[in-house]
């Protein structure tokens, strides 16, 4: 009953956000002088119309894509990538809201995985306002997963990372914290092609990795995390993040300082700590449909179970978005690498994912992964034995295919019913524990706020 109640709360939040605050603007007489539009007090934000929607062409260039800030942290996707959201102007403030919520039943054939009914979700609100010669942005992203994912994890066979009830999570994914991001951003342009940006976040996303999976267009319909999450983008919820970025033309260089320890398993609070880790990222946007990045970071004591171990992380990715007449095709190729600075073990992970939206209401997607796993996985959720040393034990492949379709039930709310199937390739060292051909199936309801134009 608790789970049903919390899911109902999530749905209520989405419905509330579709209320008059984000309603479509009334039609006006072109000859009349409507001071709510085109007034000097209401400057047009980058890539936006003065109503409540992203412009039909999207941001005109990389600088405008950054100023738009429709993604998490300071990461970037191709300029042409659609950003489903609700927008409106209030005085000189541009207000935006976007979200994703899945209610799903996950079942897995392996005895190590398990079945569960739960919800993954996030909700982001943003407010932008001109300040001096730049633009000030306030952004907060919240998740109800601490309530809608019971037992501090949901089943995901072969997944590992972080803890639940003081023990390592094995074959499961931890929920997001309630506070996924609380951030202040400021951008100042120098001419039309140059931009300096500042990002301050008690909890947020430093300049390492691509756009996190929960925000990637290529992963928008997949309700669960990738197996390579902890080598690719697990830093998207870090504490005490400070980032500065310089953009010129199609290039952007960023540097971040942040607290390296991953959030603890108590998911309702903010976890503070000194800035003891750093990262740098180079992003290239060679065209409206392309984005690539390489990033490098040094993390101090990221894992609670191995507090004396520091890590080096590297990621590289290429994203492509192809606009279609009634949809788009978003794809990502991603490599993530984590190396222990204590004993030099290395874990690599590779991901290829793609989502096609066609005829406005239909989505087909795939996620193909190859990820190295550690000997910690064999122990399950048992306490680590004395003097345990983590090391690679084998590589796992995952092949996911899914489909869902939007159903118009309520205004400004895209509701979809869908399903996905995942099959696995298992290393010989892991077959005695998982079998040779485990399979996972998920059936779900997806909810997402959209404007009237986006739902067409």
Verbal overview:
- The longest helix has 15 residues, at 2-16.
- This protein is globular.
- It has helices spanning 2-16, 62-68, 145-148, 229-232, 431-434, and strands at 86-90, 93-108, 116-131, 134-142, 154-164, 167-173, 179-190, 194-204, 238-248, 251-259, 277-287, 290-299, 311-324, 327-340, 346-358, 362-374, 392-410, 413-425, 439-449.
- By secondary structure, it is mostly beta strands.
- A 16-stranded antiparallel barrel has the order 2-3-4-7-8-9-10-11-12-13-14-15-16-17-18-19. Strands 5-6 form a two-stranded antiparallel ribbon.
- Strand 5 (154-164) and strand 6 form a beta hairpin.
- It has five helices and 19 strands.
Topology:
Elements: H1 2-16, H2 62-68, E1 86-90, E2 93-108, E3 116-131, E4 134-142, H3 145-148, E5 154-164, E6 167-173, E7 179-190, E8 194-204, H4 229-232, E9 238-248, E10 251-259, E11 277-287, E12 290-299, E13 311-324, E14 327-340, E15 346-358, E16 362-374, E17 392-410, E18 413-425, H5 431-434, E19 439-449
Antiparallel strand pairs: 1-2, 2-3, 2-19, 3-4, 4-7, 5-6, 7-8, 8-9, 9-10, 10-11, 11-12, 12-13, 13-14, 14-15, 15-16, 16-17, 17-18, 18-19
Number of strands: 19
β-strand percent reads over 45%
Q: What is the typical, i.e. mean, pLDDT?
A: 87
Provide the low-confidence segments as ranges: 1-43, 48-56
Tally of alpha and pi helices: 5
| Arrangement of strands in the largest sheet | 2-3-4-7-8-9-10-11-12-13-14-15-16-17-18-19
Helix content: under 10%
For the report, how would you describe the main beta sheet? 16 strands, antiparallel, barrel
> What gap, in angstroms, lies between the N and C termini?
36 Å
Please state the overall shape, judged from the principal axes of the Cα atoms.
globular
């Amino acid at each position: 009953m608790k789970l049903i109640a919390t899911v109902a709360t999530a749905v209520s939040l989405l419905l509330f956000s579709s209320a008059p605050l984000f309603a479509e603007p009334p039609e006006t007489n072109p000859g009349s002088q409507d001071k709510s539009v085109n007034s000097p007090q209401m400057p047009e934000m980058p890539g936006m119309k003065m109503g409540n929607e992203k412009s039909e062409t999207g941001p005109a260039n990389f600088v405008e894509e950054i100023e738009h800030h429709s993604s998490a942290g300071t990461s970037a996707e191709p300029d042409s990538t659609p950003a489903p959201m609700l927008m409106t102007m209030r005085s000189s403030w541009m207000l935006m809201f976007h979200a994703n919520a899945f209610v799903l039943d996950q079942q897995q054939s392996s005895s190590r995985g398990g079945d569960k009914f739960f919800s993954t979700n996030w909700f982001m609100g943003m407010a932008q306002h001109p300040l001096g010669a730049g633009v000030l942005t306030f952004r907060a992203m919240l998740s109800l997963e601490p309530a809608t994912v019971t037992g501090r994890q949901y089943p995901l066979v072969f997944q590992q990372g972080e803890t639940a009830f003081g023990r390592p999570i094995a074959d499961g994914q931890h929920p997001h914290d309630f506070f996924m991001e609380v951030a202040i951003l400021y951008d100042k342009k120098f001419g039309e092609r140059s931009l300096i940006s500042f990002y301050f976040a008690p909890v947020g996303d430093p300049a390492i990795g691509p756009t996190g999976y929960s925000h990637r267009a290529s992963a928008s319909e997949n309700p669960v995390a990738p197996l390579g999450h902890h080598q690719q983008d697990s830093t998207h919820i870090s504490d005490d993040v400070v980032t500065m970025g310089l953009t010129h033309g199609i290039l952007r260089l960023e540097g971040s300082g942040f607290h390296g320890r991953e959030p603890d398993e108590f998911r309702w609070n903010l976890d503070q700590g000194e800035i003891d880790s750093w990262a740098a990222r180079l992003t290239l946007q060679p065209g409206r449909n392309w984005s690539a990045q390489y990033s490098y970071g040094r993390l101090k004591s990221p894992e609670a179970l191995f507090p004396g171990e520091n890590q080096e992380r590297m990621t590289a990715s290429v994203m492509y978005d192809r606009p279609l007449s009634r949809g788009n095709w978003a794809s990502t190729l991603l490599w993530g690498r984590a190396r222990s600075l204590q004993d030099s073990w290395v874990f690599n992970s590779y991901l290829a994912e793609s989502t096609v939206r066609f005829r406005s209401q239909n989505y087909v997607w795939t996620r193909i992964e190859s990820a190295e796993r550690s000997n910690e996985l064999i122990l399950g959720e048992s306490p680590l034995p004395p003097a345990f040393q983590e090391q690679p034990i084998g590589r796992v492949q995952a092949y996911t295919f899914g489909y869902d379709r939007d159903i118009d039930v309520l205004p400004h709310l895209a509701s979809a019913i869908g399903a996905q199937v995942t099959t696995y390739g298992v290393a010989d060292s892991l077959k005695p524990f998982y079998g040779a051909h485990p399979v996972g199936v998920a059936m779900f309801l997806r909810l997402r706020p959209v404007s009237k134009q986006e739902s067409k």
